Amino acid sequence: xxxxxxxxxxxxxxxxxxxxxxxxxxxxxxxxxxxxxxxxxxxxxxxxxxxxxxxxxxxxxxxxxxxxxxxxxxxxxxxxxxxxxxxxxxxxxxxxxxxxxxxxxxxxxxxxxxxxxxxxxxxxxxxxxxxxxxxxxxxxxxxxxxxx
Length: 148
Known about the structure:
Elements lengths: L9 E4 L2 E4 L5 E3 L5 E2 L8 E7 L10 E13 L16 E2 L4 E2 L5 E2 L4 E7 L6 E10 L5 E9 L4
Parallel strand pairs: 3-5, 4-12
Antiparallel strand pairs: 1-2, 5-10, 6-11, 7-10, 8-9, 11-12
């Protein structure tokens, strides 16, 4: 069974299917957590879990910014690491990761990460509004890219 089939739930938007995976799972910790290295030839679904930052009953409602910037190294095309087609999406249903982490509906953002240059580190930032009009979250992680 491949890593991309380890999730129990499949999410669809605009005829694109996201299958979440636990390898690229980033729980909200208040700073940009570093994830495992990604090969430049791999494409993964990144799961940014906001559960820890949400009060009971709060949900994510709207993505207002999605960006990828290079933090280490040089890549003139750093923005391409975060795919815009398909666009990042808020999970419409509960998902359960292969590591038994369960994320409630509208508590995470799923996005596709691809490409990158070996030796670079990229910060992915997703800014998302919540059902609380006084709370906007910046979900972040750092992804190193290595062909080793």
